[in-house]
Amino acid sequence: MKPTIKEIIVVEGRDDETAVKRAVNAEIIITHGFGIKTKTFEQIKKAQITCGVIILTDPDHAGEQIRKRIDNKIPGCKHAFVSRDEATLADDIGIENASPESILTALNKAHASTEILIETFTKNDLLKHDLIISNQASYRRDVLGNILGIGYGNAKTFLRRLNKYGIKREVFEEAVKKIGELK
């Protein structure tokens, strides 16, 4: 059974996310390369405050630059490193090439915390507040994600983030009220 990591793991791309999820259960934030958007920095900052962040970028120059940019804007993040040898396939260097064992070892060396996820919110909460199965569901998740600082996600991702980021029910209910006020 894969361990569940408490901290949010920051990676560069979707293939890196897939590789990390083969190794552990974790919430992932993708930077989409060096041009990290302000919204992504805000999401990383929120994650650092609520449950911690582990930066796991490619062991190359671009990966190091991304790591430094995040670390400068959001101090206190943990750092996980996979060696170039473990992350290289042919001439391609990247986390997506690392084995699940190499990724897990890197996360353990970064002192990743494991946890048992507490389910505060369920699909019924999303249904009750028109966050799923409604014409406005996508819009409402987008607005609510911005208010709560957890970003946009499809229903499954949004529910996982509500529980992972430790959103309190009172904060959630107040934020839902604000959606109605914005219309």
Describe it:
By secondary structure, the chain is α/β, with parallel strands linked by helices. The chain folds into 2 domains: 8-109, Dna Topoisomerase Vi A Subunit, Chain: A, domain 2, CATH 3.40.1360; 123-182, no CATH class. It is built from 8 helices and 6 strands. The protein has helices at 14-23, 38-50, 61-73, 100-109, 123-128, 137-148, 155-164, 169-182, and strands at residues 8-11, 28-30, 53-55, 78-79, 88-89, 92-93. It has a 4-stranded parallel β-sheet with strand order 2-1-3-4. α1 crosses α4 (100-109) and α6 crosses α8. It is elongated.
> How does the helix and strand content classify structurally?
alpha/beta
- Give the SSE order as H and E letters: EHEHEHEEEHHHHH
List segments where confidence is low: pLDDT < 50 over at least 5 consecutive residues.
Answer: none
* Shape descriptor: elongated
CATH-defined topology of the largest domain: Dna Topoisomerase Vi A Subunit, Chain: A, domain 2
| Total domain count | 2
Intertermini distance: 45 Å
Strand order of the largest sheet: 2-1-3-4
CATH class of the largest domain: Alpha Beta
Give a quick account of the main beta sheet: strands, pairing sense, barrel closure.
4 strands, parallel
Radius of gyration in whole Å, from Cα? 17 Å
Mean pLDDT across all amino acids: 91
Percent strand equals: 5-15%
Q: Which range best describes the helical content: under 10%, 10-25%, 25-40%, 40-55%, 55-70% or over 70%? A: 40-55%
Query: What is the CATH architecture term of the largest domain?
Result: 3-Layer(aba) Sandwich
- Count the DSSP helices: 8
Number of strands: 6
Name the quaternary structure: single chain
